[in-house]
């Protein structure tokens, strides 16, 4: 590692060592390579461009959409002895001109700007006269229409890039995970063979838990009882479900508030504040809750319903344990939640492409709910981090249930899917295998298939769960369509040839309430 970079880390920030991803990103930038840093909030993005800015000649431009945070960041830099300033709509024309003059005179190492600034030809002309070694783009997903926060002004960053000679190094940062958005960022910001670094997603103090067969109300009641006096959030997918869960929890005699878009702004603000001040122990909420919340001692987050994708899930679940003390994140899965999410997608006014994308992300979410692998590792990999070890704390890592050999049943499922030409979904597959007497089955002559009725001994729910588990473990995949069909993947061949066997944990009768509990 560049000794000057470590020196800067010590003198300006007072830290002894870089976090793993920071080192790689800084090194790449200093070697004049573009970078795409994928890091969640709090992982330490700023240092990745601030330290190169200190070491490179000229002034680094930082494009950030968060005007309200700009001043704080610049103040913090200044008090650390780093010369930085910002230009945004909060300044008068006179102030802007003065600052630009100082920037041009070389008084600053960092200049923060809002993307809207770049729409001004005059402003870009001023920038053109500066020596700019590096442009850092914060919240880079804003450049993508596939992201959740598209901002047209981000498109002008490229124009700026083309204006400046020699071309500055581009460093883009985002917390977003999906490959489509990442590729879009690379393309739209014209990153040149960027070093992609994903880091900081693992949260070692969180215990991730998935519960499939539970009576949800019963589970929630038992969980709350075991976590008396601990702050928690319960997420539900619709306003009505929030109301139902809220009424139920209040009936348990717990201090609880509710939060969804159907309530007045005052009510919501009041609830949020009460929760923040520990006047309320629990909040039952839709995903509308949490955006602006900064409460560090949330001990658990229960998802009463599965959200639309893993990104949303992890963001919401990640509100537990912000203080670094242990937190528990429970996902209560039921097949009905998949139906609800599909309904949301179908109902939306998104383009067909977009819907396909949403279905794919939903499938990933369903797989998370069925995987037998470390849940933390599953998430970290989903975000693109390659390294990592099982967390040792999640439901799957601490699962002591018996492992059983399900090869015979799995082979029957594979055979059935193959006989149906990989053109049907989980429900139909389960029906055929269970020998259901169904009009559609008759219509397709599926009652004549060899696999028809061959898993008659299994109840529908465990069979459907087994199929989902086979998806999660990579034997099968689901298509990205409104009615996903199950398809066979390569590992099936080995199993069919008798070269590999399929194992699974026994599904619990009544799932445990807490990993640490009695
Ligand atoms: P982000 O921009 O990714 O949300 P920040 O850059 O604001 O995150 O950093 C989050 C926190 O982590 C800050 O308090 C920062 O000082 C701290 N931090 C960053 N890098 C390091 C490091 N190498 N060692 C210790 N703390 C760090
Ligand atoms: Zn684990």
From TrEMBL:
SMART domains per the UniProt record, alphabetical: DEXDc (SM00487), HELICc (SM00490), HRDC (SM00341), RQC (SM00956)
Catalysed conversion reaction: Couples ATP hydrolysis with the unwinding of duplex DNA by translocating in the 3'-5' direction
Alphabetic keyword roster: ATP-binding, DNA damage, DNA recombination, DNA repair, DNA-binding, Helicase, Hydrolase, Isomerase, Metal-binding, Nucleotide-binding, Zinc
Residue ranges occupied by any Helicase ATP-binding domain in the UniProt entry: 26-195
One GO cellular component, as annotated: bacterial nucleoid
InterPro entries named among the record's database cross-references: DEAD/DEAH_box_helicase_dom, DNA_helicase_ATP-dep_RecQ, DNA_helicase_ATP-dep_RecQ_bac, Helicase_ATP-bd, Helicase_C-like, HRDC-like_sf, HRDC_dom, HRDC_dom_sf
Superkingdom of the organism of origin: Bacteria
Name under which the protein is recorded: DNA helicase RecQ
Family: Belongs to the helicase family. RecQ subfamily.
Obligatory cofactor(s): Mg(2+); Zn(2+)
Pfam family, one: DEAD
Xref: Gene3D superfamilies: HRDC domain, P-loop containing nucleotide triphosphate hydrolases, Winged helix-like DNA-binding domain superfamily/Winged helix DNA-binding domain
Native organism: Cohnella terricola
SUPFAM superfamilies associated with the record: HRDC-like, P-loop containing nucleoside triphosphate hydrolases, Winged helix' DNA-binding domain
GO molecular function, one term: 3'-5' DNA helicase activity
Location of the Helicase C-terminal domain: 215-366
Any GO BP annotation: DNA recombination
Enzyme Commission code: 5.6.2.4
